[in-house]
Structure formats: structure tokens, C-alpha cells
Amino acid sequence: MLVLAGICGAYQQIHTLRLGRRLLEAEKLFYLIGDTGSDLIAIVDTRGRRLYNSPSYEKILGYSPDDLKDTSGLDQIHPEDRARVIAAAEDAKRTGSGHRLEYRIRHRDGSWRIFESTCSAVRDHRGKIDKLIIVNRDITAQREQAREIPSIPKVKETCSMGERCPMVASFSTKAVWSFASIFSFSSSTFAGL
After folding, report:
1. Which member of 52, 72, 80, 117 has the lowest number of beta carbons within 10 Å of its beta carbon?
2. Which residues of the chain fall short of a pLDDT of 70?
3. Which residues form the domain of 70?
4. Which pLDDT score, from 0 to 100, does residue 97 have?
5. E-assigned strands of the chain?
6. 44 contact partners, CB below 8 Å, separation of at least 6
7. Tens of pLDDT along 104-113?
8. Nearest to residue 136, comparing CAs of 189, 59, 27?
9. Alpha-carbon gap, residue 64 to 76, rounded angstroms
């Protein structure tokens, strides 16, 4: 009987050590993703209080963990976008899943950046939603570049086949090649512009 108790005790210790190692590995992976990723990752409670902000907040928006620790998740969101963000968070809390949303977040320097955001609900042991995980990707450059590219109807209206197109010629080289790649034009299409 004493030997059996010893074997059970040893098994429990080994099992506990293995679980501890798995937990440590999972924690390392979590921090690796948060520390090296370019997306902003935030965890907030159901009242919007920040529980975690990835280090990318400092890299991308200039806010240190100390800058953010006593602020609401809504403080840096553009006032015109707050109602949509609140509605999306309420929807995620109600349904358990979020949807893609674009909104502006203030950089520490005062400028506004455009982010695409998704939200996921986290449930506690009773199945009740108690946290939201929010992942934001900075899409400011893409939106600015999209503004440089004319709409197709505008290009058709302005340009005709075989003629020089001043509208397209006035864009930066980067915008022209972006336009060309989006619509599968070859470099010969823009020869002579």
C-alpha cells in the first residue's frame, strides 16, 4: 500500500511538472506573438478597461504601457468613430463574436491612423463573456494609397484608348504601378504617359 501511494505521488508530481512546462511554453508563445507582431493586440474587460496591450502599441502609436494603463480602451479612438466601436463591442459581448471594423486611433503625436479591427469574446468558466480580445492592423498607408488611385468610371471618362491620359500621368510612379498591378495592366499600357 505504501509503495502504491508513493507511485501515485510520483505520478502526480511528474504530471504537475509537465503541465507547468506546457503552461510556460504557451506563455512564451503568447508573449512572442505580442512582442514581435505588428498588429496591436488588446485585452479589455466588459467595461472597456485595459487588461493587456501588446508592445506594438508603443512601436506603432507611440504609447508606452504606462501611458495606457489608466486609460479606457476608447480614449484614443476618434470621437466620430466611438459610437460604432461601442456598438461593435456590445454586439461582440451579446453574440460572442465580432465583425471587422475600421476606425481611427490617435497617435501620441496627435495624428490619426486608420485601423482595421476584429474582436473576439473570451468566456469565463461559467460560459459568460468577461473579456474581449481586440486585434488592430494599421491600414493608413493602404487607405492613403487608395485615395491616389482614380475610380474606374473617372479614368474611363478622362482617358480614351490610344491617347495620353493626364490624370494617370499626374500620379506618382508608385501610385501608377499600384494601379497597374491592381488591374493587371502591363508596363506597355503606360508607355508614353
Report:
1. 80
2. 1-2, 4-5, 8, 15, 19-20, 23-37, 150-193
3. 19-139
4. 85
5. 40-45, 50-53, 101-106, 112-123, 129-138
6. 50, 51, 73, 131, 132, 134
7. 999 999 999 9
8. 59
9. 13
Whether the CB-CB separation of 136 and 115 falls below 8 Å is answered with: yes
Count CB atoms within 10 A of the CB of residue 44: 20
- Do 34 and 78 belong to one domain? yes
**How does DSSP classify residue 190?**
G
Q: Which residue has the cell 489608466?
A: 70
For the chain, the 3-state helix, strand and coil shares in percent, each to the nearest 5, are: 50, 20, 30
95, 88 contact by CB (below 8 A): no
- What's the domain count of the chain? 2
Tell me: do 185 and 121 sit in the same domain. Answer: no
pLDDT at residue 175, rounded to an integer: 53
User: Strands 50-53, 40-45: parallel, antiparallel or unpaired by DSSP?
Assistant: antiparallel
* Residue 30 included in any domain: yes
